[in-house]
C-alpha cells in the first residue's frame, strides 16, 4: 500500500500558504483513494475467491480553505466511505491523503488525535452521534479538554457557552444541562456542529448533515455551515444525494457513481450544464413538479450495479441511454471541458465521439 512506506503521524497542518502563482492551496487532498472491503460469508472472509466490495476506486479530490465542495451521488455510491477514509476512521486499500501538503496516515493514538484536531467529521444522524447519557455541556467540554483549549472548569464553561452561541443555541445556559433527547433534530445537529468546532479544525467533513432533518430547518443548518466556512475559513466537504442543494451551497461539485468520481467542476456548471449522463439523470430525478416527465424517464433507467462485480468499462453503461461498444470495454479517461469542468465519459473524447 502506498501509505506503508510513509512515516506515521500528521505533524501540525497549518493553513496552507498561497501557491507560487497566488492561487489557493488545498488543505486536504486525496489522490487515487481506494477502499475494497473483503466479502465475508458466515462471519469468515471468503478467501477462496478473494471477493471484495469495490466501495471506492481511484478517488482524487482537494478541499480548499473558505470553500464548500459537494460530493454528490446516490445512496451506496461510496460517498460516506470517502468521508470515513478522509477522517482516517479506517485505512485505505491504496492511495494517498495529504493534510497541509504532508502525507498522513494516522489511525490511532496521538497522531490520530492531532489529525482530528484538524479534520472533523459530522455524521448524518444527530440522534445516534451524540451520546444520550451525557449533557450538552459534557459533550462540548470534551473536545475543549481533549485538545488542550480548556484546562479549568471556568475555561470549559466559557468555551461551551461560546460554542453554543456560535451555532445559534442561545441563551447558552438554556441548553447546557439538556440531554440530547430533550433537543429537536435541528438543535441536536447544531450541537454536533459545535462539538466539531470545539477542536478548532481546518476541515469539516459533513456526511449528509441535513438529510435526517425536517425540510423546514435544513436551510438554516446549511446557512449556519456556510457562515462558519466564511468566518473560520474552513474547508467543508458537503456530502449529499441532493444535487439541487449542492448548486445552492457549494463552490465546486463532484459527482460519484459506483465508487468512482465521474464529473467535477464549478457547481453552477456541473448542475446547469451536466456533461455526464449520470449527472443528467441525478438532475432529472431532483424533485421538481414542473419536470414530472423527466422524473418518470429517470426512474425507468435502472439501479446502481453490484460493487462486488462492477461492470467493465464505464460502470454506468448498463443504465446509460448513450452507451457505446467502447463504454463496455474500457474505463473512460478524464476529459477537460474548460473552466475547471471535467468528466469521465467517452462521449467527450475523440475516440468515443467517433464510435
Ligand atoms: Fe454513457 Fe458511455 Fe459516457 Fe459511460 S462512457 S456515461 S456508458 S456514454
Could you characterize what this model shows?
The longest helix has 18 residues, at 215-232. The strands form 3 sheets. This protein has an 8-stranded mixed beta sheet, sandwiched between helices. A 4-stranded antiparallel beta sheet has the order 4-1-6-7, covered by helices on one side. The protein has a two-stranded antiparallel sheet with strand order 2-3. The chain has 14 helices and 14 strands. Helix 4 (136-146) runs parallel beside helix 7 (185-197) and helix 7 (185-197) runs parallel beside helix 8 (215-232). Helices cover 34% and strands 22% of the residues. The structure holds iron/sulfur cluster (SF4). Iron/sulfur cluster binds next to loops.
Helix/strand/pairing category: alpha/beta
CA-to-CA gap between the ends?
37 Å
What is the averaged pLDDT score?
Answer: 87
Count up the helices.
Answer: 14
Which spans have pLDDT < 50 for at least 5 consecutive residues?
A: 1-16, 289-300
Small ligands present: iron/sulfur cluster
Rg over alpha carbons: 21 Å
Q: What strand line-up does the widest sheet have?
A: 8-9-10-5-11-12-14-13
Number of strands: 14
Strand coverage percent: 15-25%
Helicity range of the residues? 25-40%
Secondary-structure topology with pairs:
Layout: E1 28-38, E2 40-41, E3 44-45, E4 52-63, E5 68-72, H1 79-86, E6 94-99, E7 102-103, H2 109-118, E8 119-122, H3 126-129, H4 136-146, H5 153-166, H6 173-176, H7 185-197, E9 203-207, H8 215-232, E10 235-240, H9 243-249, E11 252-257, E12 260-266, H10 267-272, H11 277-285, H12 292-299, H13 325-329, E13 334-338, E14 341-344, H14 350-353
Parallel strand pairs: 5-10, 5-11, 8-9, 9-10
Antiparallel strand pairs: 1-4, 1-6, 2-3, 6-7, 11-12, 12-14, 13-14
Bound molecules: iron/sulfur cluster (SF4).
